[in-house]
Design a protein that fits this description.
This protein is 26% helix and 22% strand. It has two domains: 179 residues, Glutaconate Coenzyme A-transferase (3-Layer(aba) Sandwich), CATH 3.40.1080.10; 240 residues, Glutaconate Coenzyme A-transferase. It has 447 residues and is α/β, with parallel strands linked by helices. An eight-stranded mixed beta sheet has the order 15-13-11-10-16-21-25-26, with helices on both faces. A seven-stranded parallel beta sheet has the order 4-3-2-1-5-7-9. It has a three-stranded mixed beta sheet with strand order 18-17-24, covered by helices on one side. It starts with a helix and ends in an 11-residue tail after the last helix. The protein is globular and about 75 Å long. Helix 8 packs across helix 9, helix 9 packs parallel to helix 10 and helix 15 runs antiparallel to helix 16. The chain contains 16 helices and 26 strands.
Length: 447
């Protein structure tokens, strides 16, 4: 096969490529920073020609022009498998809907035909000498929805790092119907998160749970980044990486000599991930780097894969936790903020890992609209809040006041353990609420 000739033959303009989209089609955008603003802009131009086009994506970091230009949602209906900040703002305006997803199951929805795809719009590297384009920083479910799509259109962007596998990190030019030359704009970068003194205190508690040879998963946000910074400055040795998201702090840990992966039981010596978001420091690190291994999410996030590495330390954020141990990480009441993502996958997988620990981390308080201090450890979840991790699966909860292990504990023991790490000024009220809910024993003592 002459893949060079086939590649050249398939090149068209963006405007020409998106003419294949018809009213009522399901169009799948790329994921995370691999979503194509270039192809979105071309499709947006066709607004008045189309009705009821159903757009799906995973954590698109920008507000698509197709959506912003169609506030009545007559032409484009936008859906996100995992909310970004941009999707959250669109949701507040009733311009985006969430699709429930336990992340490791994502590819199976396409394999089983639950999610038909008419057109896939993705962003890729130029092809290599063998005719393969690389999916860049988002493996995740991209190959699965491209396999399911009737037509695949790829923006070629020279700024995309070539992220080595792993598996399914590439597509052959024969698997793509149209190529469009992009403007080679750099990948979107995440701003450095603001790390507070409380984040650092929580990170210090977490650091005490990590031993030499542990295998790390870090979620997004300030606190996991604070953990990474502290690890980079620690004397920990031979840490491994098996994570859904690769962030800048992993680069810091690696360059400080903390990460070798040599004690991992699977993918020894490899930093395994399914998508990456951060700054150019991270993207440059990923490019053609054989220590990094990109896999689909049904590998990285499968609890039966996660647990094959011993001493999995999985660190994730939450919005609130109730006295029963239920975790809400994706909504504040009925206001949707994020998604289930891989949190459930990794909390469950960490428990099955020999020596593993799944840590739900949150500051003990927040200030409400009136500036009043409110507890994130709550008697019950805020009405309408979505349970991300059920009480039966939850493992450890960490605030700046300590750590609570919930396995094997009755309702009153859980209440006691969680109140013990709540803000001291708010503990008495929590005790009263626990007593009213009949999950309190008078002999309880709170330190």
């Amino acid at each position: 096969m002459d893949h060079k000739r086939e590649y050249e033959r398939k090149f068209v303009s963006a405007d020409e490529a998106v003419k294949v989209v018809k009213s009522g089609d399901v169009v799948h955008y790329g994921e995370f920073v691999m979503a194509s603003q270039f192809l979105d802009a071309a499709l947006a131009k066709r607004k008045d020609e189309l009705e009821g086009v159903n757009i799906r994506t995973v954590c698109c970091p920008f507000p698509p022009q197709t959506v912003v230009g169609d506030p009545e949602r007559k032409h484009f209906i936008y859906n996100d498998w995992h909310f970004s900040g941009a999707s959250r703002k669109l949701h507040d305006k009733n311009l985006c809907n969430y699709i429930s997803l336990t992340y490791h199951e994502g590819p199976s929805f396409y394999d089983r035909g639950y999610v038909p795809v008419d057109v896939a719009l993705i962003k890729v590297t130029p092809p290599d000498e063998h005719g393969y384009v690389n999916l860049g920083t988002a493996n995740s479910i991209t190959h699965a929805f491209c396999d399911a799509a009737k037509i695949v259109i790829a923006e070629v962007n020279n700024s995309v790092p070539r992220c080595l596998g792993g598996s399914r990190e590439s597509l052959h030019v024969s698997e793509i119907d149209y190529f469009v030359q992009g403007d080679n704009s750099p990948l979107l970068q995440l701003p450095d998160p603001t790390v507070s003194a409380i984040d650092k205190k929580i990170a210090q508690i977490i650091l005490g749970q990590i031993s030499d040879g542990a295998c790390l998963q870090l979620g997004i946000g300030a606190m996991p980044n604070a953990v990474g910074a502290m690890i980079a400055q620690s004397d920990l040795k031979d840490l491994g990486v098996h994570t859904e998201m690769l962030v800048d702090s992993f680069v810091d840990m690696y360059e400080a000599g903390r990460i070798t992966g040599l004690r991992k039981q699977i993918d020894k010596g490899k930093m395994v991930y399914t998508f990456a978001m951060g700054t150019n420091k991270l993207y440059d690190f990923l490019n053609n780097n054989p220590i990094c291994a990109s896999y689909p999410v049904d590998y990285t996030n499968d609890p039966d894969i996660i647990c094959q590495n011993d001493n999995m330390i999985c660190i994730n954020n939450a919005i609130e936790v109730d006295l029963y141990g239920q975790v809400a990480s994706e909504s504040s009441g009925i206001r949707h903020i994020s998604g289930t993502g891989g949190q459930l996958d990794y909390i469950y997988g960490s428990y099955k890992s020999k020596g593993g620990k799944g840590l739900i981390c949150l500051t003990s308080t927040f200030a409400d609209k009136e500036g009043k201090l409110q507890s994130r450890i709550r008697p019950t979840l805020t009405p309408g809040a979505i349970v991300t991790v059920p009480r039966s699966i939850n493992y450890y909860v960490v605030t700046e006041y300590g750590i609570a292990m919930l396995k094997g504990k009755s309702t009153w023991q859980r209440a006691e353990a969680l109140i013990n790490i709540a803000h001291p000024d708010l503990r008495e009220e929590l005790i009263k609420e626990a007593d009213a809910q009949k999950i309190w024993v008078r002999s309880n003592k709170i330190s």
